[in-house]
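Q: Entry one of two.
A:
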Amino acid sequence: MLRAPARDAEGELHLVEKRFFDWNRPGGFDFARRIGVISAVGGRNYFAIAEPVLVPGMTVHYVRTRDPQHASPVALRGHAEQRGDAELPLIRVDERELTFYDLEPHIDLNASNTVGIGIIGPVDLEQEDGVLRADLDGDGILEFFYACTGSEGINLMVRSGDRSSGAVRWRAYYYLGYNVEPTCREVDKQ
């Protein structure tokens, strides 16, 4: 398991973190509020997610979707603010309103235009043959992390059961602003 979330001086989770990490309640893993997009643009690292109340110091696990896949923890700094001419990246996650956060500098995010999946809080990620997997929602079915390109952006997905054709549990689109060779298949668009 990767690093646990930040705790206060008494070892207690912040109140907002307790809401995320109550694994005993039914449906304890909320894909929409625990998974987002990590990107490195213009020397800054961003995390975009449909959750407006994350706190500095929380752990976000960066999942690199290119092969070989790997994951590493990154600390959340706080809400991102637009600075000068640098614009926040254009990201769409299931038509939800997103909140952008700054992340601490990290060796895996130092390349320009790095894009990947971010997961809030503790998660058991396993790697086999260069592919990451985890049973995020505890239903006994493994989730996989997948990415492909559209004509002008990157489609990011979390799928259950099979990496390339399983049921899509979470989806995002990262707009690049220039044409790329599409690699997405019809099954990726559904």
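Q: Entry two of two.
A:
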Amino acid sequence: MAFIIAGFLFIGFPIAANAFFLFALIFIPFFGPLIVIAYATWMIKDLDVGETGGRRFDSWPVRILRNSSIFQQIANYFPVQLVRTCENPEAFSPNRNYIFCGHPHGIICFGGVLSFGTDALDFKGKFPGLTPRLLTLRQNFWLPIGREFVASTGACAASERGISAILDNESKGKAAVLIVGGGSESLEHGQFEIPLVLNRRRGFIRLALKHGSPLVPVFFFGEQFVYEQADNPQGSFIRRMQTALVKQFGFTLPFFFGRGVFQYTFGMMPFRKAVNAVVGSPIEVPKIENPTKDDLDHWHAKYVDDLKKLYETFNPIYGDKNVKLVIN
């Protein structure tokens, strides 16, 4: 039931509301166009919310949505848990800003959404003084009505401007949460391996160096296995089409399936498999306004090394020792 309600809030209701706007604009004299113009005015004024630091966490829409019991029920379904591995209480300071880097993306990234886009897993209890800002495509802030639900999770845009607005914030204690592999990584899958799209990613390293913000590796053990995906080998027509969508629009359409509500063979509900969002220790980086290629390569290698150590250490506990990590 929680999945149905969440699907209605983030997909069904926005579609119905936009259909109503169209109906009102055509068939309801005066008041119809007035309603549409009023919302359009608000949306234009608020269009940059994802790239200017996001909605305030003390605003009532953010408080209501992030604390909704729906997300707690979804987290209990898998279940999903948020794990802090660094025991040093001073490792995460409310006087600094951080970049949390999540892997893998999976289809929907339940681990990332529930850990950082809601309060269902007690992020503030585990990381006192920090405010998480989950990063998503900036196009999500352009969709009428649907954008209001995205913004009300406290999310921001996964763009240089959006991330910089978080890291430059004078009120410290912000955590920009980036799912590094993005849409390209959502196409990767394997039964006995977890492929990450990481070797060519340098943008998050550059921003961390530019702002002097520590990098925090996060691994979502189990995320890749909550859905099955149709075979899409490199070079196939399906993969070429999916890759073209990523390059053109920033998102893609993975062909995935899960279980049904009353049977386990086929459906759109995710499989009931545990997801563990394991947060590693911060990686301190110097502040370099204009990092060179050597700087980027050095700190990228350092980040990848720490991510591998995080995986190797906690995979036997929260993952599957028969599944290997592959970095592409």
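A: Comment on entry two: The longest strand covers residues 215-221. The longest helix spans residues 2-27.
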